[in-house]
Amino acid sequence: MGWRPFGRQDRKYDELLVKTARETVGPNIELMVDAGGSEQFWPHGLNWARETAKMLANYDITWFEEALPPDDIEGFIELTKQSPVPIATGEVLTRRQSFLPWIERRAVDIIQPDCTKNGGLSESRKIAWCAFDHNVLMVPHGWNTAIGVAADLQLAAAQPVARYVEYLTPCDYIEDLTTEPFEIDAEGFLKIPQKPGLGVELDHDKLKKYRVT
Ligand SMILES: [Mg+2]
């Protein structure tokens, strides 16, 4: 959960949102909070992020994402040291060279490369192995298309430690683009396609809906 209105009113309202979500899903569902700090004019700095992380720990939040603007590496290093919940970011970074300082300086607990922005699967693989070597968890950022999700699944499956792939729903670009759409099972798992390549095929009839003429 996250982005607006989280982080946009006041601390009490943020806590109400998280408390409501936790009470709704119960104690045994993993819940992550994405502040959306890569949105333009993000108003918060380290103090807000640190205090919010303490609040999130009271609701057993699995990770706290983009709590700061995406280029505030010094802020993230401090936050990762101090936060009682794991800290995540990286979805807007491009090229492996941009990821290296975040991983090597331990600015995050979880790094989130987006294979449709960072240079592709080969680049993602290098980032993921670097993260593994530094004991940082890699969770691919899947908020793009069915092709991106298919690539994320193959990437995650090829890593020694893979716990999550982000999956956006409802979203036609993800759920209504391929011949065999992804389906989440009752426990929240996606099957990794076994066919050659990314394992998915574009449905060209469905694709016509998105054509601009
Ligand atoms: Mg995000």
Q: How do you describe this structure in short?
A:
The chain is mainly alpha-helical. The protein has 8 helices and 5 strands; from the N terminus they run H-E-H-E-H-E-H-E-H-E-H-H-H. Strand 3, helix 4 (96-104) and strand 4 form a beta-alpha-beta unit.
What would you say this structure looks like, in words?
This protein has 213 residues and is mainly α. The protein has a single domain (11-168), classed as Alpha-Beta Barrel (TIM Barrel), CATH 3.20.20.120. The protein is 37% helix and 5% strand. The chain is built from 8 helices and 5 strands, in the order αβαβαβαβαβααα. It has helices spanning 11-25, 46-57, 73-82, 96-104, 121-133, 146-157, 172-175, 204-207; strands spanning 33-34, 64-65, 87-89, 110-111, 137-138. The protein has a 5-stranded parallel sheet, with helices on one face. β3 (87-89), α4 (96-104) and β4 form a beta-alpha-beta unit. α4 (96-104) runs parallel beside α5 (121-133). The chain is globular. The mean pLDDT is 95. The structure holds magnesium ion.
